[in-house]
């Protein structure tokens, strides 16, 4: 029995020793792969660095080695994606996305954004290629259609010329027939006169009368022959006209078919052109309403409707946005600012004629337009005086909202992104971060720009008192270079 216990202890020790050796070997292998990846990265060989860092990920087991590998993998993946933007490779992108699914801890906001940008760029290129192909096809069909029309015109002219020739020939035959008839009548009259003379002269002229009779028969046969020729020519004209009519019908059918093909191509082109605006559920940036100074629903967002499910989804989204908006107000010290701005944006959307669903979406986006402040140093947010460097750091909040918008459904992402990044753009192009001008500024950003400024002017601040409504509105009107005056006029009507 003691021997059995010794055997069990020995076996256990061997298993523990073997496991430790394997784990140590695995850890050492991960370190070696990571070193190779680092060397390749420093040499500028991103492909080898990418390969070795993936191998290190595959063999790393302990938490420390995984952390080191993941940190370096994020750097390598980001550089590889940036290279992929310059020289796109479909298989390389698929490989990266597969590895990101395999190692989800690698994916951060920058990597996710790069992948999204690459996919969007490729989608835009495919659309452009498809549009060019459609245009080329339309040009070929147009040229074919024009060639067919020219052929039809040529055949028509040929038919007209043939008909004119036949008509002239028939007229000539008619004239010949009339002349022959006149000649026959003259001959008959001559015969009667000759017969009378022959009867008076007597039998001595019998042979002459017989010869005249034969001439008369020949003339009659000639007239009959001419009549037969006329009938033949008439039949020939009818056959030619019938064939021309069939050819014209065939050309008309070809014309109709070509027109249908052109109409189908035009319809496809129209769908491609409108698809980027009306496909609210297709994941395209369809809700980014820029380049339009008209706020009427039909011009602002054609054919967009929100179902009951969409409206319920927006209500749930509003709850989440209200929670984050409260966090923003807490760190910035602006009590109820998110609530006041979002409610004003909603009322402005309705006043300007936007659909109820679109107004609700604008309400949600306006609740968290300053989400970038959650990534700013809290001390800067409460400071009474700022240096120029600190002011620039504060302006960076428009570029720091991305990670706080990850909960937003993809189909609404563009509206929230425009709200967060472009609410400090000015109509005259003096705003930041991109210096957009006029109608290049999305509508949601223009709405927030006016609503935020009005709430700020009409609220009490530590450095000044609150303005009355009329003074605040007049201030916005006087600064026409900053604000969309159509929005300001709508604000004047509702406050």
Hey, roughly how much beta strand do the residues contain? under 5%
| Shape call | elongated
User: What's the total number of strands?
Assistant: 0
Low-confidence stretches: 15-26, 254-293, 296-304
Largest sheet: none
Mean pLDDT level:
78
How far is it from the N-terminal to the C-terminal residue, by CA? 94 Å
What does this molecule look like?
The protein has 16 helices and no strands. The protein is mostly helical and 495 residues long. It is elongated and about 165 Å long. Mean pLDDT is 78; it is low at 15-26, 254-293 and 296-304.
List keywords for this structure.
single chain, 495 residues, mainly alpha, 16 helices, 0% strand, elongated
Short description:
The protein is mostly helical and 495 residues long. Helix content is 75%, strand content 0%.
Describe the SSE topology.
Blueprint: H1 2-42, H2 46-59, H3 63-86, H4 90-102, H5 109-201, H6 206-278, H7 297-300, H8 308-332, H9 337-351, H10 356-367, H11 378-382, H12 388-395, H13 413-422, H14 443-457, H15 469-478, H16 485-494
């Amino acid at each position: 029995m003691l021997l059995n216990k010794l055997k069990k202890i020995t076996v256990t020790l061997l298993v523990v020793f073997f496991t430790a050796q394997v784990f140590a070997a695995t850890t050492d292998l991960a370190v070696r792969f990571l070193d190779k990846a680092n060397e390749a990265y420093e040499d500028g060989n991103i492909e080898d660095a990418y390969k070795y860092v993936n191998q290190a990920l595959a063999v790393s087991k302990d938490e420390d080695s995984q952390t080191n590998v993941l940190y370096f993998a994020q750097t390598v993946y980001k550089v590889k994606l940036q290279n992929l933007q310059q020289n796109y490779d479909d298989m390389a992108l698929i490989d990266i996305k597969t590895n990101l699914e395999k190692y989800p801890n690698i994916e951060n906001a920058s990597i996710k954004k790069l992948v999204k940008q690459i996919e969007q760029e490729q989608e835009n290129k495919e659309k452009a290629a498809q549009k060019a192909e459609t245009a080329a096809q339309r040009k070929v069909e147009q040229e074919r259609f024009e060639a067919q029309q020219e052929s039809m015109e040529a055949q028509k002219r040929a038919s007209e010329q043939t008909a004119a020739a036949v008509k002239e020939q028939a007229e000539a035959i008619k004239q010949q027939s009339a002349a022959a008839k006149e000649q026959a009548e003259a001959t008959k009259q001559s015969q009667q006169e000759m017969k009378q003379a022959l009867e008076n002269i007597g039998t001595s002229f019998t042979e002459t009368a017989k010869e005249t009779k034969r001439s008369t028969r020949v003339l009659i046969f000639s007239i009959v022959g001419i009549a037969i020729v006329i009938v033949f020519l008439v039949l020939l004209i009818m056959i030619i006209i019938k064939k021309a009519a069939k050819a014209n019908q065939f050309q008309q059918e070809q014309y109709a078919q070509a027109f249908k093909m052109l109409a189908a191509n035009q319809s496809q082109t129209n769908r491609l052109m409108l698809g980027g605006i009306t496909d609210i559920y297709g994941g395209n940036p369809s809700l980014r309403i820029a380049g339009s100074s008209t706020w009427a629903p039909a011009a602002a967002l054609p054919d967009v409707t929100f179902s009951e499910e969409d409206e319920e989804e927006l209500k749930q989204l509003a709850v989440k946005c209200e929670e984050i908006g409260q966090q923003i107000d807490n760190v910035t010290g602006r009590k109820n600012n998110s609530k006041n701005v979002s409610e004003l944006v909603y009322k402005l959307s309705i006043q300007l004629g936007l659909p109820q669903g679109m107004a609700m979406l604008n309400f949600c986006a306006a609740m968290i337009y300053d989400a970038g402040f959650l990534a700013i140093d809290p001390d800067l947010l409460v400071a009474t005086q700022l240096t120029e460097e600190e002011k620039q750091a504060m302006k960076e909040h428009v570029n720091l909202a991305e990670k706080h918008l990850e909960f937003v459904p993809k189909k609404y992402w563009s509206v929230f992104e425009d709200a967060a990044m472009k609410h400090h753009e000015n109509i005259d192009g003096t705003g930041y971060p991109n210096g957009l001008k006029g109608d290049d500024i999305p509508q949601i950003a223009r709405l927030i720009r006016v609503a935020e400024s009005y709430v700020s002017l009409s609220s009490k601040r530590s450095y000044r008192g609150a303005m009355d409504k009329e003074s605040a509105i007049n201030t916005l009107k006087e600064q026409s270079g900053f604000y969309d005056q159509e929005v300001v006029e709508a604000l004047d009507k509702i406050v």
